What does this fold into?
Amino acid sequence: MLATFVREHWRAYASAAAMLSCIAAMTVWIPRQVGHVVDALVAGKLQGPALIEPLSLLVLAGLAIYLLRVGWRLTLFKAAYRLGARLRTRLFARLALQGPAYFQQQRTGDLMALATNDIDTVEMAAGEAMLAGFDGTQTLLLVLAMMTLSIDWRLGLAALLPFPLMGLAFWWISKHLHEAAQDSLTRFGDLNQQVQESLAGVRTLRALGLVDRSRQRFGALADSAAEAAFRSQRWEAAYEPAVGMTLAAAYAIALAVGGWLVAQREITIGQLTAFTMYLGQLIWPMFAAGWVLSLLERGRAAWARLAPVLDAPLTLADAGRAALPPGATLTAEGLSFRFPGAKRPALEAVDLTLAPGRTLGIVGATGAGKSTLVRLLLRQAEPDAGRLLLADVPLPDLPLATLRAHIAWVPQEPFLFSASVADNIALARPGATPADIEAAARLAAVHDDIARLPQGYATEVGERGVTLSGGQRQRVAIARALLSDAALLVLDDALSAVDTGTETAILDHLRELRAARPDRSVIVIAHRLSAVMDADEVIVLKQGHVIERGTHAQLLELGGWYAAQWRYQQIEASLEAE
Ligand SMILES: Nc1ncnc2c1ncn2[C@@H]1O[C@H](COP(=O)(O)OP(=O)(O)OP(=O)(O)O)[C@@H](O)[C@H]1O
It folds into this structure.
């Protein structure tokens, strides 16, 4: 990925490298020129107006270096920010393709840390270190070192003696910094996860009186993240003393050996001046090398966390290319599924058929496998045995987009986005008119509730807006599903939070809708049997098995689980009515 990015932005890196070469050339030229000027001044060869030309050239060169440095930096940063944006897009695209099984193993807060903090770290490394910055400063270091050798090789060798030791110190520091940076990023991910969970569960924490305990836990994680950040900072700070000590030693050697060589008349004072200037100029690339190395190590640590997520195999294959004819019958054949690590299967050998225009009710005690069936239907998980077919096409042979356009799913706890009620409903059909949206809301028996909101359909809901009741949220989601063109409507316990009267109204509307869309099939999963009594077929699940099936009347006659449950719910309803 990084290599591809460099290839794509080769122009930016080539121009940064060219600018750096000019900087290097001028940095090399300036001390030489100053040395010549000093020698000419000492020899009395340069006086008065003759000084103007060499001095103005020096000023111009200084100015050019300054401008080139700004240009070089901006070029690299622009490319780095682009890399950040691309990595974020790529991460998002990858996560969007992953199935729920993947997210069960990942922590949301950690993924958020990857998308923000870790990508920032890679971005910095790419901008400053990984590319032209690193190579450039090292080239400059090499050129400057060569220049010191070219003045007098003995003096050069002696003064450069401490440098290999510095290299060794850099290697050691980098190794430890890498580990410390990785630890720091991981702890930041933990902290982020805690923020996400605490905010999402703040009401539960408050209700259970756990706010103080959660605050302590958060404090401990924040402290641990701060300590880890400080530990990596400590290693990062070690680069500077290593550079400082190396330079101090090089200067001491240069002055002692250089002074002796001047006394022996082997070199001139001008040459020694130029030599010490070269040494002085080494400060910048050396500090830069330390800084760049630390960014690089941090970037490598962040990349080590990011790469597995970017390259994780997709848990949901989308290789199907088959077309779906209109009016497709849904069939399940011997469907079995066991959650990873579960003792018993959530579904075992389930068969069913749902023809276009028909309604299927699925009932059963809690944990019977009703929602699991929907998961398999939506391909949120793949069956261990058996298969699901639409118009005789196995689901994996259909593109996911086709499957999703075919099914409108309303879960028990639907998600509303931070947007207006109208926008939340219109998600199912972008471009729907206000009249379409209102018609869908009326069918879902939520129009009156919406009309009572402060700004009606324009009221903001979701995290930043008005809080809707569970039943209102369910009905907004039903309106969303009804607005879509999907041929199969799945109400997955989606009427659990509405009262019986509203449930009846919605189901009546669904029946009326049949006239307009005779091919639309409906799956109603419910605990309240009144929600499925008009279904063309009802299946009763128990511990993953279909134990009864038939129409409401047939099931009552059968005298099994359904009949007993019906009697129980009737008594309950009459008691409530009293
Ligand atoms: N993510 C999961 N990991 C492991 N087991 C799971 C998971 N989700 C559900 N199960 C188990 O699978 C079985 C079937 O669950 P499912 O949610 O399909 O039941 P359900 O009939 O929809 O129940 P309810 O009416 O309470 O929603 C249960 O035993 C449940 O504990």
Remarks:
- Residues 330-577 form a domain with the Rossmann fold fold (CATH 3.40.50.300).
- The chain is about 65% helix and 10% strand.
- The pocket of adenosine-5'-triphosphate is lined by residues 339, 342, 346, 364, 366-372, 493 (CB under 6 Å).
- The chain has a mean pLDDT of 87.
